[in-house]
Amino acid sequence: MTILNKPFNTPYNTAPFSKIKTEDYLPAFKIAIEKAKAEIDAIVNTSEAPSFKNTIEALDYSGEELDRISSLFFNLNSAETNDEIQKIAQEISPLLSEFSNDITLNVDLFKRVKIVYDNKTNLDLTTEQNTLLDKKYKGFSRNGANLPEAKKDTLRAIDKELSQLKLTFGEHILAETNAFEMHLTNEDDLSGLPDGAKEAAKQLAESKNKEGWLITLDYPSYIPFMTYADNRLLREKLSKAFGSKGFNNNDLDNQEIVLKIAQLRFKRAQLLGYKTHAHFVLEERMAKTPEKVTTFLNELLDKAKPAAKKEFTTLENFAKSLDGTSTANSSGIDKLQKWDSGYYAEKLKQKLFSLDDEQLKPYFKLENVINGAFNVAEKLFGLQFEEVQNIDKYHNDVLTYEVKDADGDLVSIFYADFFPRAGKRNGAWMTSYKPQMIKDSHNHRPHVSIVCNFTKPTKSKPSLLTFNEVTTLFHEFGHALHGMLANTTYPSLSGTSVFWDFVELPSQILENWCYEEETLKLFATHYETGAVIPMELIEKIKASATFHEGMQTLRQISFGLLDMSWHGVDPSEIKDVKAYEVASFGDTSLYPDVAENCMSTAFAHIFQGGYSSGYYSYKWAEVLDADAFEYFKEEGIFNKDVANKFKTFILSQGGTEDPMTLYKKFRGQEPKPEALLRRAGLLK
């Protein structure tokens, strides 16, 4: 028995990361799987007649140890991985897939669940219990419980292969990200780059015993170079490297994997009686059908496309007007290319609003922004955050906090991991190490984490965030609040365990506070002088909030439509990933296609993460968040009554009730898309 299979003798039962050896995981998983199987056997073999308590509730509480080990291991595989962890992931994923199928395809277990389900009108169940019963029954029926044995075997084989393919897809992207370095030795090649970005590039080179400067595909390195570097040829080189991940016809190529994943998902959906993978997925979403998603995206497209085309033409003309007046390396703009977008958009933004990230960054020292997020959470929900040193970490960069309510009771443990490193995938996400649930009359509080990739402090400067990074931090913190404030009985309905087109509401609504003067004055102070951000800059932030909103909306719509094009059809005739992608982007393309690049081969959200047939949910949730924030604006952005309603009906309820029912309890009405169009400046 490993350290992972015993109770943790730690503060708040937190994970003892420093004491866990990598080699502990595989045996721990195997032991936990056997324990979980024994728990299932106990449910099946009891002599008692099936009841909600001895079948449905027992099933939801089963496998607690296995779930805990899985959360620790797979979070490490995203935030602090290595070859050994990746090897274990490849070995354990099919075992977990097989175990999951052992449950959903267990005939005797399903019989008990079905008896309870068929008798539900005679049971005196709470709303949450009714939801759990429906979820458990669908968990079986939607995963093959009603299939004949031969088809169950086929389903098992599909699920096993899918779990391995998704892992390999992600490993390839991480390996390609880590493999690329642009080593510069001529300082002229860094022309235009802010001093902080230059210093970070120099430090990175020094850390690898190299002269000069290193630029990588990690966001804190990639984004500043694409935004500020005058050298167009180097921007092109970097952009093509970024856009070709998984598309280099080498050992890390993802083209065949994309085709296989799409085909296996389709085959699985058909096996279960659904037309496509999207039909299968969307049955358990607010949107319900692929047709509704496509209509939703196309209606937004109709509103956004004219604005996007106008913005693109303006940007292209602006770039041409600078042609010859800027550095020689930037001249020669005949047609605006993808590697020009960030560079010229930043220059146009500066011209229109006299605003650039370098002006703002001194006011957004990471520590101050973190405290700003905490301050917002305190004003809205009465939460107190205290950094503590007695909680174990998986890396020195990680910060740990106790979160308490106004009465001093523990609400959550909170981890924050902000900087890029070799073993960490790009992007930003929220996750959990331990779920909230009420079991044996005890409210088990959650352990929640956010993981980001922000610019590290340099020798001369602290970590200073771009405004985009500020909104990213607030976004992930919004997800974290959803996890922290969870207050449900059952773990599978707790926190962010909601429909995927509802899960982005708490994260996206919190971004709105970043644009408000009342909020910015709480934390946006100059890292050297302590001066509060000037009102003039706040006005510029608000004025520039809808800058290129048409193009941004078009971009998000294009990703949603690409996702639906992979998953809302029979993909068996698709042979060429790139050609198919180009066709899917047809109505949303502004920039010329780059032959060397392919998005699908690195589209981790849909081919590695959980967003397949669900990428539209970002825009869907924007409708919710814009409508919800209008309510806050009407009553005051820190209005306690509105905040309490949001906490009571949205943040604490998890997936205990239909999300539209919960939303209407909070808002008093269904969301109106006009709020989003107003905010985006797309409603005339």
Structure description:
By secondary structure, the chain is mainly α. It folds into 4 domains: 3-146, Endopeptidase. Chain P, domain 1 (Glutathione S-transferase Yfyf (Class Pi), Chain A, domain 2, Up-down Bundle); 180-243, no CATH class; 262-331 and 549-684, Orthogonal Bundle (Neurolysin, domain 3), CATH 1.10.1370; 362-547, Neurolysin, domain 3. It is globular, with a radius of gyration of 25 Å. β7 (437-439) and β8 (442-444) form a beta hairpin. α13 packs across α14, α18 (505-511) crosses α24 and α24 crosses α27 (674-680). It contains 27 helices and 9 strands.
Q: Topology of this structure?
A:
Elements: H1 25-45, H2 52-61, H3 64-79, H4 83-104, H5 107-118, H6 127-141, H7 149-179, E1 182-184, H8 195-207, E2 213-215, H9 219-228, H10 232-243, H11 255-271, H12 277-282, H13 290-322, H14 338-353, H15 357-360, H16 366-381, E3 384-387, E4 399-404, E5 410-417, E6 429-434, E7 437-439, E8 442-444, E9 447-451, H17 467-484, H18 505-511, H19 517-523, H20 535-543, H21 549-567, H22 577-584, H23 604-607, H24 617-635, H25 640-651, H26 659-667, H27 674-680
Parallel strand pairs: 5-9
Antiparallel strand pairs: 1-2, 3-4, 4-5, 6-9, 7-8
Helix pairs in contact: 1-2, 1-3, 1-4, 2-6, 4-7, 5-6, 7-11, 9-14, 13-14, 13-21, 16-17, 16-19, 17-18, 18-24, 24-27, 25-26
